[in-house]
Amino acid sequence: MASANTSWSEENFSCSICLDVFSSPVSTPCGHNFCRTCITKFWEGKVQYKCPVCNKLFNTRPDLHVNILLSEMVDRFGTFVRVKEQPCDEPGEVPCDVCTGTQLKAMKSCLVCFMSFCQTHLEPHQRFAVLKKHRLVEPLDRLEDRMCKQHDRLLELFCKTEQVCVCQFCTGIDHKFHAVVPLKEEYEVKLAQLGKIEAEVLQMIQERKSKIKKIKDTVKLSKSAADREIADGVQIFTALKRCVDKHRDDFNKTVKEKLKSTQKQAEDLIKELEQEIEDLTNRILEVKPLSHTKDHLHFFQAFRSLKDPPPTRDWTTVEVRPPSYIGTLRRSLDQLEETLNMEMRKLCGDAEQKRVQQYEVDVSLDPDTANPQLILSEDWKQVYDGNVVRKLPDNPKRFTNVICVLTNQSFPSGRFYFEVQVKDKTSWRLGVARESINRKGAFMVTPEKGYWNIYFNKDGLVFNDDPDVRLPLRVKLQKVGVFVDYDEGLVSFYDVEARVHLYSATGCTFREPLYPFLGPGLHNRGKNSAPLIISPVNQTD
After folding, report:
1. pLDDT value at position 87?
2. Secondary structure (3-state) at 374
3. How far apart (Å, rounded) are the C-alpha atoms in residues 105 and 116?
4. How far apart are CA 330 and CA 451, in angstroms?
5. Would you say 74 and 64 are in contact if contact means Cβ atoms under 8 Å apart?
6. What is the Cα–Cα distance from 215 to 209, expressed in whole angstroms?
7. For residues 432 and 363, what is the distance between their CA atoms, to the nearest angstrom?
8. Measured between alpha carbons, how far is residue 283 from residues 276, 306, 308, 309 in Å?
9. What fold does the segment set 2-141 form as a domain?
């Protein structure tokens, strides 16, 4: 009996699922034995029931009966298989589905058993001929999710038609005429798409980061602009306050001087009256004793000796009139208003011109656009009418009738500023024009036609529009500044020397690049021969 026992190894009393000594061994209809818990867990959730050893299919879930003989032999054997522990504790490792307690790391997954096995529990698949037929793959997590629910086969193909994963059996039935490729092949395609998507998303992220930076920079610039504006405002209001204070002091002085003059007149009259009163009092003192004498002779002798009375003024028409302050305050306020207007124009124009000058751009004239009568300097900074129509190559960019020229540079957005010297000229035109303007024949040079400009001649200064806007001009212009805020739809003109704002066209709609343009006017027999000169900005504090 002992020798018989030695011929039996531990594997004769081990469950082929858990590889431990049988616990409550039960038999399947095909004659194989398993622990009740192992076979129950193996069939749990299955649609079809088969033997883990021989793969025999059962139509219905078999009734499991305790193998009494095997149970008694296990009890008699009294041993069980010890498995060397190798815990599965690394991230991403697939645990063994058979281990109880501490789960060991799976070495392979069986696509027939739908289970993953550690090295110890994998041993039956390497030893039993029937288990060797099972398909073993590298450990896969959630193995059942990788199996076709309909055919109980590995989902290793991809149907491009329906965009789903399928097994080999699916391609012969539901997906028979569909475009099917290996899962790995489609994986590589989708992985490439993901790479492209990732690159696009990273690009979008970068664009948004750039937008955030641009917004922050704009806020920073806005704060700097606000600080400068406040500083300019403080300077202007301080200057205006000084002006108001001076006029207030002058007004107070005027009123006080009028009062002082009246007081002086009154004091002089009172002094004169008091002197006359004193003289008349002395006269009474001189006459009064004589009026009381009874001696006739003495009376006449004394009467002849009386002095003539002192001269006195006729006071009936003399009076002190209170000063009139009517109109004093009004005149003072009128003077203040005129002074304030002058100061505001000067101060505001100065501050505004400093701000726009920071957007200076370096522009030069484009000879391909110049009217054939125009002469350009070698540096393309000056232009005047040569009084002769030259023969030049036909160019679609060239003006044929209007005596003007565009710059080489255009501006599709943002802000820009340039200055042009107009000294010694009797007529000229200056401004900006959109790219698509008509350059052939005669036409109106107005905003409607794509021109925003001012024009000067013997009749004065006007902003060309329909109708024209006549502009006040106190002194002859020497240099004109042009400022454009593309996004705000603003075109402004400045008298650079006087630092005065001339005119602003607001609410303009720009949809294409803008070009600075200059029109030097006709030669006029030498009276208007001076050139228009694009000048560098001389920013002064």
Report:
1. 56
2. strand
3. 9
4. 45
5. no
6. 10
7. 12
8. 10, 9, 9, 7
9. Herpes Virus-1 (3.30.40)
What's the token pair of residue 347? 């101060």
532 and 347 Cβ atoms separated by less than 8 Å: no
Cα distances (angstroms) measured from residue 290 to each of 284, 285, 311: 10, 10, 22
- How do residues 149-186 score in pLDDT, each as one tens digit? 888 778 889 998 889 999 888 888 888 889 999 988 98
Between CA 279 and CA 272 the distance in angstroms is: 11
Name every residue whose Cβ is closer than 8 Å to that of residue 456 and which is 6 or more positions away in sequence.
Answer: 422, 425, 427, 428, 429, 462, 477
CA separation (Å) from 387 to 55, 390, 455?
108, 9, 20
User: d(Cα 190, Cα 194) in Å, to the nearest integer?
Assistant: 6
Q: Which residues of 46-74 are buried (b: 16+ CB within 10 A; e: fewer)?
A: eeebbbbbeeeeeeeebebeebeebbeeb
pLDDT tens digits, one per residue of 232-267? 888 888 888 988 999 899 999 999 999 999 999 999
Tell me the per-residue pLDDT of 84-107, one tens digit each, with 9 for 90 and over: 344 555 655 888 888 887 889 899
Residue 382 phi, psi dihedral angles, 5° rounding: -125, 150
Q: Do the beta carbons of residue 406 and residue 453 sit within 8 Å?
A: no
Q: Determine the Cα angle at 77 with ends 73 and 81, to 5°.
A: 115
Rounded to the nearest 10 degrees, the angle between the axes of helix 328-357 and helix 183-287 is 150
Helices (H), 157-182: none
For residue 59, the 8-state DSSP code is S
Just give the CATH number of 358-535.
Answer: 2.60.120.920
Q: What is the mean pLDDT of the chain?
A: 87
Quick: pLDDT tens for 363-404: 999 999 999 999 999 999 999 999 999 988 889 999 998 999
CA gap 372, 2 in Å, rounded:
126
Indicate the DSSP class of residue 360.
Answer: B
Look up residue 488 and give its two tokens: 């705000």
For residues 208 and 265, what is the distance between their CA atoms, to the nearest angstrom?
83
Q: How far is CA 116 from the centre of its chain?
A: 57
Sign of CA dihedral 490, 495, 496, 499: negative
Spell out the alpha helix ranges (H) of 358-460: none
Q: The tokens of 100 are what?
A: 């109880």
